[in-house]
Amino acid sequence: MSRTPLDTVEHAAATPDVELPWAELGLKKDEYERVVEILGRRPTGAELAMYSVMWSEHCSYKSSKVHLRQFGEKAPQSDALLVGIGENAGVVDVGQGYAVTFKVESHNHPSYVEPYQGAATGVGGIVRDIIAMGARPVAVVDPLRFGAADHPDTKRVLPGVVAGIGGYGNCLGLPNIGGEVVFDACYQGNPLVNAGAIGVMRHEDIHLAKASGAGNKVVLYGARTGGDGIGGASILASETFDDAKPSKRPAVQVGDPFQEKLLIECTLEAFKEKLVVGIQDLGAAGLSCATSELASNGSGGMRVTLDDVPLRDSTLSPEEILMSESQERMCAVVEPEKVARFLEICEKWDVIATVIGEVTDGDRLEIYWHGGKIVDVDPRTVAHEGPVYERPYARPDWQDALQADDANKLSRPATSEELKSQVLKLVGSPNQASKKWITSQYDHFVQGNTVLAQPEDSGMIRVDEESGLGVAIATDGNGRYAKLDPYTGAQLALAEAYRNVATTGAKPLAVSDCLNFGSPEDPAVMWQFAEAVRGLADGCLQLGTPVTGGNVSLYNQTGEAAIHPTPVVAVLGVIDDVARRTPVAFQEDGQLLYLLGDTREEFGGSAWSQVIHDHLGGLPPKVDLERERLLGEILISASRDGMIDSAHDLSDGGLIQAVVESALLGGKGARLVVPDGLDAFTFLFSESAGRAVVAVPRSEEVRFNDMCGARGLPVTRIGVVDGDAVEIQGEFALSLNELRELHEGTIPALLA
Amino acid sequence: MTARIGVVTFPGSLDDRDTRRAIRLAGAEPVALWHKDKNLHQVDAVVLPGGFSYGDYLRAGAISRFSPVMETVIEQAKAGLPVLGICNGFQVLTEAHLLPGGMLGNDHLHFICRDQKLRVENADTSWTSDYTAGQEIHIPLKNMDGRYVADSYTLDKLEAEGRVAFRYVDFNPNGSLRDIAGITNEAGNVVGLMPHPEHAVEPLIGTGRTDGLPFFTSILKKLVNV
Amino acid sequence: MARVVVDVMLKPEILDPQGQAVQRALPRLGFEGISDVRQGKRFELEVDGPVDEATLTRIHDLAESFLANTVIEDFTVKVEEVAEAAK
Amino acid sequence: MARVVVDVMLKPEILDPQGQAVQRALPRLGFEGISDVRQGKRFELEVDGPVDEATLTRIHDLAESFLANTVIEDFTVKVEEVAEAAK
Ligand SMILES: Nc1ncnc2c1ncn2[C@@H]1O[C@H](COP(=O)(O)OP(=O)(O)O)[C@@H](O)[C@H]1O
Ligand SMILES: [Mg+2]
C-alpha cells in the first residue's frame, strides 16, 4: 500500500488501476470484486484493510452464518432473555432486577504459538465483551483441550495456557469457577483454549454497541495502539497451521491484565454516572471492527480522525492502526457535555482516553488521516453485509464404519479382580483424574461471592448478599461423542451442562456455546458442523434454554487431520437462595445413595472404551431431553426442599467415577450394591445420559422416593455413605487413600 | 460508637470490597481510602488489601509503596496506627520496610489457591487478640509471590521476639522460610500475612469457614475499648 | 568455570507492560529524563570447562529454543569477562 | 540518547527456583555441562541527554530504592556502549 501520495478516497477514484494486495490480506477474488462493486471504485488501502479483517472467517462467520441462524429461528420462548444473539454477549433476567450476561470464546490458535499470552489474551477478550454489556464481570470459566497427556509438547502448551489464564484472570480479580481439561491426541497441534465469563448488572444498566445521536463523541480509551497482531484476525484465526510455513504465524499479542483491571473499574464508574450512550470493546479487527459496528448498529454515521489515536509505535500506517489488535482498549460513545466527566474518570484510573471522532447525521463511516479522507464506506457493508457461504457439506464416507465399530462388543472384565483393576485404571487416567494441579492455579475466592467452584458440578456465584440470589454455570463438551454422531454429541454436551447446573440446585436458563471444528472447506467437517448446530438448536428448543451467543472456531486442524468436532456448551442457571445449593461431596455417614435415571449398555465413546481399549467407535449414549428436564426438576426441588445433602451428575467415567469423586471430596466412603437387572460392569462404567447420584438423609427417604415416584423418574437405591473405602459388594473394595493417591497423583506426575 | 477502619484501594487492588464487607460483618465501619489521597480521613486503623496492585509489575507491592496514601500510612504506623497488610498488602508493608524481610515468587513457580491451615503464634497483636496462641485456623490462601524470605539474623530475631504471628501448618504452600505466614512489628500494631482472612467470614462463601472473622473483631475490640 | 549471560527482552514492537509500569512510576519518584523503560530477563549460566565456539553455539540454540520464545522475544548471548563488582 | 542497563539478581544466598527450574530442564533438552543457572531481571533505561556521573548516581539511587529490593536482591548499573546485535 503506497503511502506517498496518501491513498485517499479521491486518489483511489482517480487511480482505478492500482493493484492492491487483497489476496495477501486473505480476500478471495470475488470478495474483492464485491468490495469494488459496493464502493463503485477500488478501495483505498485503509478500506481494504477494514474489509479484509471484517470479512475474515473469524469476524464475519461467513461459513457458519447460514447454520447459526437456527439458534434464532428455533429459539424457545423465554421470558428470561433480555438481549439475544448479535450483541457482544447475551443478557438474561435472573430476577430481583438483576441481569446476567455470559459468553464463551476461543483463543485456540494463538495459544498454540504462545501458550501463556495466547490464553491470557483470550481471557482479556471475553471479559471486555462482558464489560461492554454494562456488567461487572464476576467469574470466568475455562474449557480446555490438549493433545495426549504424555506428549512432550503438552508439557509446553498446558502449563503455559494454565499460567496464562491464571495470570490474567487472577490479576483481574475474577474467580475461576469451572471449566474442563480434556486430553486427546486429536488436539495435539490444535489445543482448544476456550474461555467464558459471566457478568452481573441491574436491568437498567444494560448497554449496547451502537453509536447514536449526531454530535456525540467517540472516545477511545485504554492501552495505546501498537503493531500487535496486525492481520491477526484474518490470518491467525482463520488459516490452517501448516508445519511447512511457520513464517505465516505473526506475533501474538501480549496482554496487560493490570491495564484491563483499570479499564473495568473506569468503565463501570462511567456507566454508574450514565455517561455512556454506546460502547464496544476492541477485540479481533480492533478499530475496524469497533468503528464499523458502532456506526452500523446506530442511527447515524461516524467520522473518525485516525491521527488522534494514541500510538505506542509512531511509525504505524493508517492501515495498521485500523487492523491493530492491541489489547485492553474500548470505544465509548459519549454526549458532548459529558465528555469532560468521562475523561476525568479515565484520568482518575490512569487510563489514557482520547476523543477520536463523532457521530454524524449521515450514514457513512468516514476516516481521516493527515487531513485526507482515507475511508468512506457504508458501515453496514463492512460489519454486517460480508460474504455468506453455503459451503458444501456431506456425511463423511467413514461415518458408517465408525458407527458400526460397536464399543458394546469390546471385551469386558471377566473377574472381580479385573473389574477392580479397570476401575483403578480409569480413575487414574488423565481425563478422569483430578484437575486440582491445574485449578489450584486459579483464584476461586476473590470477590467473596463464590459459593461453589471446581471440582463441583457447576460454579456458583452469589449475586445478592441480602436475598442469597445466585447464578450457576457449567461448560461441557465431548468430542468423542460428537465424532461418533455430531448431532447427538452436541445434544449430549448441552444435556450434560444442563444437568450439571441442575445438580447444584440451580434452574437452567440459557446457553452460550463455543463451536470448535476443523476446516469448513472440507465437506466432512462442514457436515459435522451443520449437524452439531442442528442438534444444539433442536436441543435448546426442547429444553427451553435459548442460545444467547457464542463463538465459532474453524480451521482447527493440522494438515488433513481435523480435531474431533468439539461443540462446547455453557449453561447458565439461577438459584433463589445459594444456601440451598447442593455440593458434590458426601456429607454424612449413613445417608442413602440413590441412582436417578436409567442405566443401559452404552459404551460408545466412553471413557472406559478409551482407557481400556484405546477405542472410539459405535454410537454415543442416547439422548432424552424430556428426561433431562425431569431429572433437573427433581434435583432442583430436592435441593430447595432440603431432601438431599449431596448430588453428582453421571457423565464420562460413569457411576464409579462419580461415586469416587463424591467420596474423595467428602472424605467419606460408600458401600454400593449392584442393583437387580444390572451387571456390575454396566452398573459401574455405562455412560447413559440423564443420570445422577444423590445422598438422601434417612429422615427424607420417604419424601424423596414419593416425589420421584409421583413424577415418574426411575430411582434405584444403590447403597449408603459409609467408612473409608468405596466398596462394591461382592466385587471389591478400594480404600480412599489408594483412590486419592491415584486420582490426585496422575496430573502432577505428567506435568509438574 | 464503633471504629472506623480504612481500606486502601490501589490501582489493581482486588480484595478491597471484600475487606470492607468483612469489616462491616465484624461490626465496624469500613472507610474506603484512595491511593492518591494522603488523607486518612480520621480512620482508627488501616487495612492494605490483597490484589495485584500495579499488576505486581516490578515486584509485588513495589510501586504502591510509593503512593501518596502510603506516605501517611508509613508515618502513622510508626506512631502506632494499627495497620494490617493482607497478601499484596503484606508485600507493600515489606517493600515499605514497615515489616522486615521480603516476598518472592512461590518456590514451585505457580500461583496457588487453597484452604490453608495456619497456627496463630502471637495472639497479642492489635489484629489477633481474639485468637489464642497456638490456635489452628483455616484461611484461604492465593498468591503468586508468597515466599517470605529474610536473612537468618532477622529470622532469629523475629523468632526470639515472638514476632512470627502465623505459621503454615502441615503444608508450606510457597517455600516461606521457617513456614512463616505472617509477622508483626515490635509494637504489634503492624501485622502482615499472606492468607486472606477477609475470605473466611461467612459460612456459605469460599471455603465455608469463618476463621478469619477474629482479625476484624480483634481490632474492633481494641479500638472501642480505648 | 566461566559465566555466560543470556539476556532476553521482548521484541521492540511487543507491548512491555512491566517496563511501562516502571516508567510511569518514575515521575512520582521524582525521576525525570527517562524516555523508555523495558524489562527483560537475565540468565546467568555457569559453564563447566572452557567456553569455546561450540559451547556458545549450543547455548545460542538453548536460548532460541527454551530460554526465549522467539515469537515475542529477542535474546543476546555473551560471555561475562570478569565478575562485575556487585553493586 | 543513551541506554543504561540495570541488572538485578537475587542475592546469592537466596534460593532461585526459576534458575533451578531452567537448570533441571537442561538434561532433558540434551544439554550438559552447566553447573548453575540464576535468573534475574534486566532493565533497559533510555536516558534523554548525556549519561554523566550525576545521571549515573541518580540511576544508582533509583536502582537501590526502587528497581531492586536490596533486602533480597543485588544490582549493577552500566552504560550500554553500543546497541548489541540482537540475536
Ligand atoms: N480448566 C479448568 N478450569 C476450571 N475448572 C475446571 C477445569 N477443568 C475442570 N474443571 C472443573 O473440575 C470439575 C470436574 O470437571 P469435569 O470432570 O469436566 O466435570 P463434569 O464431568 O461434571 O462436567 C468441574 O468442577 C470443572 O468445572
Ligand atoms: Mg458434573
UniProtKB/TrEMBL annotation, chain A:
- Which residues does the Swiss-Prot or TrEMBL record annotate as the active site? 58, 107
List the pathway annotation: Purine metabolism; IMP biosynthesis via de novo pathway; 5-amino-1-(5-phospho-D-ribosyl)imidazole from N(2)-formyl-N(1)-(5-phospho-D-ribosyl)glycinamide: step 1/2
Reactions mediated catalytically: N(2)-formyl-N(1)-(5-phospho-beta-D-ribosyl)glycinamide + L-glutamine + ATP + H2O = 2-formamido-N(1)-(5-O-phospho-beta-D-ribosyl)acetamidine + L-glutamate + ADP + phosphate + H(+)
What Pfam families does this protein's entry cite? AIRS, AIRS_C, FGAR-AT_linker
Sorted UniProt keywords: ATP-binding, Cytoplasm, Ligase, Magnesium, Metal-binding, Nucleotide-binding, Purine biosynthesis
**From its record, what is one biological process in GO terms?**
'de novo' IMP biosynthetic process
The terms under GO molecular function for this entry are:
ATP binding; magnesium ion binding; phosphoribosylformylglycinamidine synthase activity
Report the residue ranges that make up the PurM-like C-terminal domain in this protein.
214-369, 589-725
Q: What class of enzyme is it?
A: ligase
Q: Which SUPFAM superfamilies match?
A: PurM C-terminal domain-like, PurM N-terminal domain-like
- What is annotated about its quaternary structure and interactions? Monomer. Part of the FGAM synthase complex composed of 1 PurL, 1 PurQ and 2 PurS subunits.
- UniProt name for this protein: Phosphoribosylformylglycinamidine synthase subunit PurL
* Protein source organism: Streptomyces brasiliensis
Q: What gene is this protein translated from? A: purL
Automatic annotation (TrEMBL), chain B:
Q: What is this protein called?
A: Phosphoribosylformylglycinamidine synthase subunit PurQ
Source organism, top-level taxon:
Bacteria
Gene3D superfamilies reported for this sequence: 3.40.50.880
Q: How does it assemble?
A: Part of the FGAM synthase complex composed of 1 PurL, 1 PurQ and 2 PurS subunits.
EC number(s) on file: 6.3.5.3, 3.5.1.2
* Record SUPFAM superfamilies: Class I glutamine amidotransferase-like
Instruction: Kindly state one GO CC term assigned in the UniProt record.
Output: cytoplasm
Database matches in InterPro entries: Class_I_gatase-like, PRibForGlyAmidine_synth_PurQ
PROSITE patterns per the UniProt record, alphabetical: GATASE_TYPE_1 (PS51273)
Query: Keywords, A to Z?
Result: ATP-binding, Cytoplasm, Glutamine amidotransferase, Hydrolase, Ligase, Nucleotide-binding, Purine biosynthesis
* Cellular location(s): Cytoplasm
Q: SMART domains of this UniProt entry?
A: GATase_5 (SM01211)
Q: Which GO terms describe its biological process?
A: 'de novo' IMP biosynthetic process
| Any one Gene Ontology molecular-function term assigned to this protein's record | glutaminase activity
The annotated pathway is:
Purine metabolism; IMP biosynthesis via de novo pathway; 5-amino-1-(5-phospho-D-ribosyl)imidazole from N(2)-formyl-N(1)-(5-phospho-D-ribosyl)glycinamide: step 1/2
Reaction equation(s) it catalyzes: N(2)-formyl-N(1)-(5-phospho-beta-D-ribosyl)glycinamide + L-glutamine + ATP + H2O = 2-formamido-N(1)-(5-O-phospho-beta-D-ribosyl)acetamidine + L-glutamate + ADP + phosphate + H(+); L-glutamine + H2O = L-glutamate + NH4(+)
From TrEMBL, chains C, D:
The reactions it catalyses are: N(2)-formyl-N(1)-(5-phospho-beta-D-ribosyl)glycinamide + L-glutamine + ATP + H2O = 2-formamido-N(1)-(5-O-phospho-beta-D-ribosyl)acetamidine + L-glutamate + ADP + phosphate + H(+)
Say where the protein is mainly found.
cytoplasm
State a single Gene Ontology molecular function: phosphoribosylformylglycinamidine synthase activity
Q: Which Gene3D superfamilies match?
A: Phosphoribosylformylglycinamidine synthase subunit PurS (3.30.1280.10)
For the keyword Cell wall biogenesis/degradation, the answer is no
Q: Where in the cell is it found?
A: Cytoplasm
Q: What's any one GO cellular component for it?
A: cytoplasm
The EC number(s) this enzyme carries: 6.3.5.3
InterPro entries per the UniProt record, alphabetical: PurS, PurS-like_sf
Q: In which pathway does it act?
A: Purine metabolism; IMP biosynthesis via de novo pathway; 5-amino-1-(5-phospho-D-ribosyl)imidazole from N(2)-formyl-N(1)-(5-phospho-D-ribosyl)glycinamide: step 1/2
Against Pfam families, the record matches this protein to: PurS
- GO BP, one annotated term: 'de novo' IMP biosynthetic process
Family of the protein in this entry: Belongs to the PurS family.
Matches recorded under HAMAP family: PurS (MF_01926)
Subunit info here reads: Part of the FGAM synthase complex composed of 1 PurL, 1 PurQ and 2 PurS subunits.
In Swiss-Prot or TrEMBL terms, this protein is called Phosphoribosylformylglycinamidine synthase subunit PurS
Question: Gene that codes for this?
Answer: purS
